[in-house]
């Protein structure tokens, strides 16, 4: 056999071995959604990195958004309690407080109901394609939380 072919085959086998090691390694971190109330999605490793302390403001400090705040909290509470809820879309320029409102609503709901399994996941816009995977993951994990 030609040395070039053997070299190419060895390279391909090394790549396959590395992929298998990355995906089936026993040292791979396991996602534990009970470890925190908030996570940051790391798509390269399919890892939900726990956020031990979320940087947020109290909901009462957010002014001029009472109607939107109340709608978001009511809808999210319904979702957290297993009732039908709507998807929510907040829009506006950077710095308008969308993330602050979401984080404050999350904290407000957990404060009212500490037993809630409501989780906050930060996912970057370039990773939106991973949402179906995350939704399936949480649907499967839900049965273990109840």
Uncertain spans, ≥5 residues at pLDDT below 50? none
**Span from first to last CA?**
60 Å
Largest sheet: 3 strands, mixed
* Annotation field: number of helices: 4
H-E string: HEEHHEH
Radius of gyration: 21 Å
Please state roughly what percent of the residues sit in beta strands, choosing from under 5%, 5-15%, 15-25%, 25-35%, 35-45% or over 45%: 5-15%
- Cα shape: elongated
Would you mind describing this structure in some detail?
The protein is mainly α. It folds into two domains: 1-27; 31-145, no CATH class. The protein has helices spanning 3-24, 66-80, 98-112, 131-145; strands spanning 38-42, 47-50, 120-122. It is elongated. The model has no long low-confidence stretch (mean pLDDT 88).
